[in-house]
User: Which sequence fits this backbone?
């Protein structure tokens, strides 16, 4: 991970020196809305993939469930996303980008808090279903509005570079945060092998911190788009 971060910093210095000739124009990140969109997608992907790693591991190793049963128990998260996605256009028009993503981030944070409680006190599958549904619905309400705001904030001729930059950064979020959560879980489990609930509780606690950061970043998104392809209103 340290080597990857070093390479990332070195590339940033090289791209800054190359300017327009670089694969990604770093000047795009000078825009407040685009930077907020990129940061949101980075944390959103991190929360999504870290949670998709932690929950099954907890259910299998912490609760002693079989993998096939765990697969069924993960279903509410997908259902939450499926309930949110078809309503994105209508909800964004009615509430605006910032309010919608704020509510989504809070719902996902509430779901993550429930996971901490369940890890420390014992699994209750009805609460688990509610927690996963909240996370799925909440995160489903963030991605599309955030990306729309980011793309609307750049010039039309910069869209290809902006798309590349956004895709690269958001895909970094998944492995980085999954690794951090796995390291937290592994370190606690090896130090206290008979306190699995505490280890999983701390790992889910880190996931809560990630969701809290996601909420703070969505506060920087614009209130709503001015018009289709016409930029955004910071508010």
Assistant:
């Amino acid at each position: 991970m340290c080597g990857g971060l070093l390479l990332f910093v070195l590339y940033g210095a090289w791209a800054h020196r190359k300017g327009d000739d670089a694969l990604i124009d770093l000047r795009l990140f000078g825009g407040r809305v685009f930077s907020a969109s990129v940061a949101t997608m980075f944390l959103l992907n991190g929360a999504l993939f870290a949670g998709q790693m932690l929950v099954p591991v907890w259910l299998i190793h912490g609760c002693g469930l079989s993998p096939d049963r765990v697969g069924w128990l993960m279903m509410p998260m997908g259902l939450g996303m499926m309930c949110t996605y078809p309503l994105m256009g209508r909800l964004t028009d009615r509430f605006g980008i910032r309010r919608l993503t704020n509510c989504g981030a809070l719902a996902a944070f509430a779901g993550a808090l429930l996971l901490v409680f369940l890890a420390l006190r014992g699994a209750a599958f009805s609460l688990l279903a509610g927690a996963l549904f909240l996370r799925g619905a909440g995160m489903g309400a963030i991605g599309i509005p955030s990306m729309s705001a980011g793309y609307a904030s750049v010039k039309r001729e910069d869209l290809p570079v902006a798309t590349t930059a956004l895709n690269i950064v958001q895909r970094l979020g998944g492995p980085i945060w999954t690794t951090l959560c796995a390291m937290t879980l592994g370190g606690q489990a090896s130090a206290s092998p008979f306190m699995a609930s505490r280890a999983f509780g701390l790992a889910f606690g880190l996931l809560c911190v990630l969701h809290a950061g996601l909420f703070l970043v969505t506060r920087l998104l614009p209130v709503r788009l001015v018009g289709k392809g016409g930029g955004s209103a910071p508010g």
